Amino acid sequence: MTEIPDDHPRHDSLVTRHRIEDGVDDGITSRQGLIAQGRGEAYDYLLGEETIPSADAAERAAAAQLLTADHPVVSVNGNVAALVPDALVALAAATGADLAVNLFNRTEERVERIADHLREHGASGVLGTKADARIPGLDHERATVDSDGIYDADVVLVPLEDGDRAAALAEMGKTELVIDLNPLSRSAQAASVPIIDNVVRAVPNITAHARDLSEADNDAREECIQEFDREAALRAAEERIRGGVSGGA
Ligand code: PTJ
After folding, report:
1. Does ligand 1 have an atom closer than 6 angstroms to the CB of 51?
2. pLDDT tens across 93-144, in order?
């Protein structure tokens, strides 16, 4: 692999691409994951490749939701497993959430590889391999979940979701926190907390907020949840994308 100089203007973006390529080579990421990453990059470029203030507010609200949940679960697909394995493990530790592998292009082999990969990065008890329950109303493989994982969760964090499942999880009464760089995607539109940010920035920032909020009292966490305005967050991201860095929030 070509060495990327630290001062290269697109350093972070190129490193991220290589992680996705390695994920495909290692049987963790699907080939469609390469296309998804390209779509995400385009939105990120327009957002200025930074966490905008409305996304930071969403990340704080997501942290509060995970901390106050009875059973928080972080859903892991082939892209996030390749991009942020350490950050996912740190997020689970900071919030008490379970990590559960859930794939759009599901194969048993890829589920096992992702679970192994997360364990190599320090995760304990990765869910998603039992596949003994289904999300009602979905006819593709993303419906396949563990009964003691996503099926049982009251709050689910979903990085890079597809719209169908977002709606199906909402139908089950779950609070859904979605990370997606496209504010117009159906999943971002359906989420209780849409986080319009790159997973490589969003996951560590949710963890930082969770560490901070775990020192606070319940009222502070509740206030953070109540004050978050999902419509305003979606609007601010869209304005930034359409208006450039000087427009929007
Ligand atoms: O590993 P699997 O089988 O579960 O498959 C995962 C992918 C992501 C391939 C699958 O869910 C898929 O095809 O997703 P889509 O429909 O391409 O949607 C991906 C969404 O994530 C798009 O709206 C992208 O803008 C967004 N996205 C891509 N990369 C990132 C991102 N959002 C945040 N951070 C990223 N790095």
Report:
1. no
2. 999 999 999 999 999 999 999 999 999 999 998 999 999 999 998 888 889 9
The values of phi and psi at residue 182, to 5°, are -100, 110
Q: Which residues contact 150 (CB under 8 A, 6 or more apart)?
A: 73, 75, 100, 102, 127, 128, 135, 156, 169
Substitution candidate for ligand 1 out of 29, 37, 79, 118 with most atoms within 8 A of CB: 79
Distances (CA, A) of 180 to 4, 79, 125, 162, 197: 26, 12, 26, 10, 6
Q: Is 164 in the pocket of ligand 1 (CB under 6 A)?
A: no
Q: Which atom of ligand 1 is nearest to the CA of 163?
A: 16
H helical segments located in 53-132: 53-68, 78-83, 85-95, 108-120
Expressed in angstroms and rounded, the spacing between residue 210 Cα and the centre of ligand 1 is: 24
For residues 142 and 135, what is the distance between their CA atoms, to the nearest angstrom? 8
- Whose structure tokens read 């009602």? 136
**Nearest of 229, 211, 174, 181 to residue 96 by alpha carbon:** 211
pLDDT (tens digit per residue) in 34-70: 999 999 999 999 999 999 999 999 999 999 999 999 9
- β-strand partners of 156: 73, 176
Which phi and psi angles does 147 have, rounded to 5°? -65, -30
Mutate to test the pocket of ligand 1, among 31, 43, 107, 160 (most ligand atoms within 8 A of CB): 160
Exposure on the CB side of residue 96, measured as CA atoms within 13 A: 12
